[in-house]
Amino acid sequence: MTDRTGAPATIGVDVAPRTRSSQTVAADAAEGRRARRRAPRRSAAAWDPSVRERSALDRLRAQEAVRDPELLPLRYARMAHSSWTYLRGAAAVMAADLAAAPHSGLMVQMCGDAHVLNFGLWASPERQLLFDARDFDETLPGPFEWDLKRLATSIHVLADAEGLTTGCGEDGAAAAVEGYRTAMRRYSRMGELDVWYDRIPSDVPLRGLASEFAEATLRAIEKRSRRRTHHGTARQLVADDHGRRHIVLDPMKRIDDGLSHGERMRAYEQVYDTYLASIPPHLHRLVARFRRVDSVRQIVGVGSVGMRVWLHLLEGDSGRQPVFSQAKQATASVYEEFLGPSGFPNHGERVVVGQRLMQSASDIFLGHMRVDDHDYYVRQFRDMKIIPTGAQIAGFLPQFGAACGHALAKSHARSGDPEAVVGYMGKGPAFAEGILGYARAYAAQNRTDHADLRDAIEAGVVEAADRGW
Length: 469
What we know:
single chain, 469 residues, alpha+beta, 6-stranded antiparallel sheet, two-stranded antiparallel sheet, disordered N terminus, DUF2252 domain-containing protein, DUF2252
């Protein structure tokens, strides 16, 4: 079974297939070099919009069927705001464009949406802050270079949106590619367990900066992480109404589902057993110590607007431990049209397994469920997660880009063959020139697509409105 480029398609469970004919490092490297014939490295720079089988707008509208129709105008309003917000919401468009050209066939567990702000800080179960990929809604086994192309493109788009010079975008994208290459070469020389145990500490994105700036930033990160614990979140989002605690969200982040408190309680109880079946048995006792106090529906992000998202406030038997649990709808990855369907019957499980494959340390509460024919994955809300903004990283974009490249290489090395990827990339400039050329060209295409969306909104073809949210 092959995809449209002639490379092996993914079948069975969502684990990147091994294409090595031998277990030796030499054979892996040779496989990588052979992959250059399938997808010459410098030719990766080519982008021709005439290869599109459907317009960008048609790709976006094709996703409407799986989203809450009430939120579609908000989705388009947010995407129309800037070329950056457009890129974040247009993963399906870029997936189709990436699939239109030959690829290496060197398969890894892709993030699927590896833009520069989908990397950030997480708390490990040991409460250590780590730097890693953070969004896996589109995760699927696929060619390693597709993630890297989206990362490099996103740096150009973000730099433009933040009003930085063209050189800043160039430097940031180049640093991301070099960070990936350097890290992947290191992983190719490591043993399997060493790759899986490797972690990226929180100071990595700040290395190479003036010490006083780095130290001040680290102090700010530590302070912010303490505010984003469950206790800190409870102080921000929980109110007490005559003895009943409930979640209070900004109207821009909440939608009225029309359900009473009792109806929400029954809905939560109906999915409880489904969720328990998806987590390791030893965690059942821990989960059983928490009871649901309140639930609301959330409006989140840009790319996820329209997806059904529930936020649950749980409280431990001790009365001293609030926990916020988020259940987010999962649909087919935008890459499945081109790489074959996921091997999992539940897209929430696809996301959870992909996250565990890519991250060094993941949320212990990760699980999945199906409710009313919709798939969901479950995770803790916030829990010391630090998600940067474009403005926050604009002053050190190359350093941050390099850290993202490092994190992406680590994730790919866990599921793919590092020696084969290194063999494909080679030692010369051909690989980097191909990726960076594509990033420049596709950032320009993204600006055009964003303008087309704005024109469609202005002409009344697409409805865009915030409706007070």
